[in-house]
Amino acid sequence: MANFPEIERRLHAREFVLKEATIIAAGVRVGCSVRNQHEQGAELRVGANVEIPDRFLLEVPADDTAYRALVRWRRNDRVGVALYSNAPKD
Predict the structure, then answer these.
(1) Angle, vertex CA 25, rays to CA 19 and CA 27, nearest 5
(2) What percent of the chain is modeled with pLDDT above 70?
(3) What share of the chain in percent tops pLDDT 90?
């Protein structure tokens, strides 16, 4: 049986990065890392047993920005998020 390449479903090219970040929701802060990112989304790495809400603020010091994020998928310690807006940190 032939092996065909997986069909690429992304609308934007990913940029592989390694940035430290913080997920902020309901007064709780959870450390994570950004593994790849594009203008409308990112892949985060968090602890496999960490509960992450569907919506949160993602603070990325390297970008000097906080993004509003919505979880699109979850796999073990990986979380894919859509990034809807950003604002410089105060």
Answers:
(1) 110
(2) 79
(3) 60
Candidates 25, 7, 26, 36; CA nearest to 66 is 25
Q: What are phi and psi of 63, to 5 degrees?
A: -95, -5
Is 43 exposed, middle or buried, given 0-12, 13-18 or 19+ CB atoms closer than 10 A? Answer: buried
CA proximity to 79, closest of 40, 36, 38, 39: 36
- Please answer whether residues 46 and 56 qualify as being in contact, where contact means their C-beta atoms are separated by less than 8 angstroms: no
- What's residue 48's pLDDT? 79
- Compute the distance between CA of residue 9 and CA of residue 57 in angstroms, rounded to an integer: 25
| Cα 75 to Cα 80: distance, rounded to the nearest angstrom | 9
Cβ neighbours of residue 48 under 8 Å, at least 6 residues apart? 76, 77
